[in-house]
Structure formats: structure tokens, C-alpha cells
Write a structure and sequence with these properties.
This protein has 149 residues and is of the alpha/beta class. It has a single domain, classed as Rossmann fold. A 6-stranded mixed beta sheet has the order 3-2-1-4-5-6, with helices on both faces. Helix 3 links the parallel strand 4 and strand 5. The N and C termini lie close together (12 Å). Belongs to the UPF0178 family.
Length: 149
């Protein structure tokens, strides 16, 4: 398993959890972003800078991931493509996207986008809580432990 991180919008605290897990489990991590992302010195962690543009980082990840890889993203369309490619998708709040829940998440995303485009003010995502961070770390550990068995 390789971990791919949709790094442009990934919170720093989540990246730090990923870096620690990668080093501890010797798992390859690739951060993909359209800006320079600093990473700690490690043979297991690298960063790829892609050109700016709509979905360029997402497309890079989809083109390079393999079945059973893990993608860390809050981007629901990227998560759906990841699942369609037989890989795993985990959001920074610790929710594992699955075949069972991704279509509902896409529908809700599209509905909210329709509301926003018609002028309805909607709240953005709530701030990342300590519980979200713990949930993410626990889910990441579970996934990595399954692979290492």
C-alpha cells in the first residue's frame, strides 16, 4: 500500500499524523499539490508539485494510484474515483469512504453546490476538532495494521 495525499487542502496537523505513521510503519507517502509542500527528511515521504489548474492534483493521483493504495482527501469526487479504481479513500476527519456511502456523499455535495450557486448561503465545514484528529489517526492505524499483517 502506498498513501497518496491530496495535499493542497490537507490540514497540517493531519499531514504530521501521516508523516509519523509512514515512518513508524515504513509506508511510502506521496503528497501531491500545486504548491511546494515541505516534508520531513525521510526515505518514505516525498512531495510532487503539479501545475496549477482545476483537478490537476486529483488527476495525477488517480493516474498513478494502484489497487489497495490509500488516498487521503476531503474531495468527494476524488474519493469516488479512488473507490472506482479499487483503492481506499479516507478523509481528514477519519471517515472511510466506501462503495456504500460515496454515492450519498456525492449527491449531498452536488445538492449543496446547487444551493450555493443559486445564492443560498451555506456554512463551510466545521473546524477540525481534537476528536476528528484522533478519529483520523485511529482509522489510519487500523488501515496500516491490516496491510502489514
Amino acid at each position: 500500500m502506498q498513501i497518496w495525499v491530496d495535499a493542497d487542502a490537507c490540514p497540517r496537523v493531519i499531514k504530521e499524523i501521516i508523516f509519523k505513521a509512514a515512518t513508524r510503519t515504513k509506508t511510502q507517502v506521496t503528497l501531491v499539490a500545486n504548491q511546494l509542500i515541505s516534508t520531513p527528511p525521510s526515505p518514505f515521504i516525498k512531495s510532487i508539485r503539479v501545475p496549477a489548474g482545476f483537478d490537476v492534483a486529483d488527476n495525477y493521483i488517480v493516474q498513478h494510484l494502484c489497487a489497495n493504495d490509500l488516498v487521503i482527501t476531503a474531495d468527494i469526487p476524488l474519493a469516488a474515483e479512488t473507490i472506482d479504481n479499487h483503492a481506499l479513500a479516507l478523509n481528514p476527519r477519519g471517515e472511510l469512504y466506501t462503495k456504500e456511502n460515496i454515492r450519498q456523499r456525492l449527491s449531498m455535495r452536488d445538492f449543496m453546490e446547487t444551493l450555493r450557486s443559486s445564492g443560498v448561503a451555506t456554512d463551510g465545514p466545521k473546524p477540525l476538532s481534537q476528536q476528528d484528529r484522533q478519529s483520523f489517526a485511529n482509522q489510519l492505524d487500523r488501515l496500516l495494521a491490516q496491510v502489514k499483517r
